[in-house]
Amino acid sequence: MYVLHFSYGRFMAKTLVSIQRQIDKLQKEAAVIKAKEVGGVIERIQVAIAFYGLTAADLFETKPRAATVGKRKNAAAPNGVAAKKEKKKSVIKYRDEAGNGWTGHGKRPAWFKTAIEGGKTAEDLLVKS
């Protein structure tokens, strides 16, 4: 298959092979650019993880979330009794000297923000187990 292009007053035929060569060249250029950018991306991610005190569990939830579209909350079980969800106790991940605690999930509490602004790091407030 030929694609005709008008260039400098002449018709020039581009073949499939020449287009594939261009694609290969561009893909190699893209790979080089990506390799250069990866280091910076990883560094920014590591800074964000440390700043927010994220764990692997926060980032990579292993249990898929159940689809809730079209389902009612507290739907009756087959025996007609509403099923109760068991609540997991949240583990305090951060604590300050005043005894304030935070699990690391949800909105940051005011005491945590104040401590960070006061020069503490998330790691300083991390509960040592």
Largest sheet: 2 strands, antiparallel
Helix content percent band: 40-55%
Structural class: alpha+beta
Overall pLDDT confidence: 80
- End-to-end Cα distance: 68 Å
Strand portion, in percent? Answer: 5-15%
How would you write the strand order of the largest sheet? 1-2
Strand runs, count: 4
What's the tally of helices?
4
Unreliable stretches covering 5 or more consecutive residues: 67-72
Label the overall shape: elongated
Radius of gyration: 28 Å
Return the string of H and E elements. EEHHEEHH
Description:
There is one protein chain. With 129 residues, the protein is α+β, with helices and mostly antiparallel strands. The protein has helices at residues 16-52, 56-59, 110-117, 122-125, and strands at 3-7, 10-14, 94-95, 101-102. The relative contact order is 0.08.
Blueprint (SSEs and pairs):
Elements (H helix, E strand, L loop, with lengths): L2 E5 L2 E5 L1 H37 L3 H4 L34 E2 L5 E2 L7 H8 L4 H4 L4
Antiparallel strand pairs: 1-2, 3-4
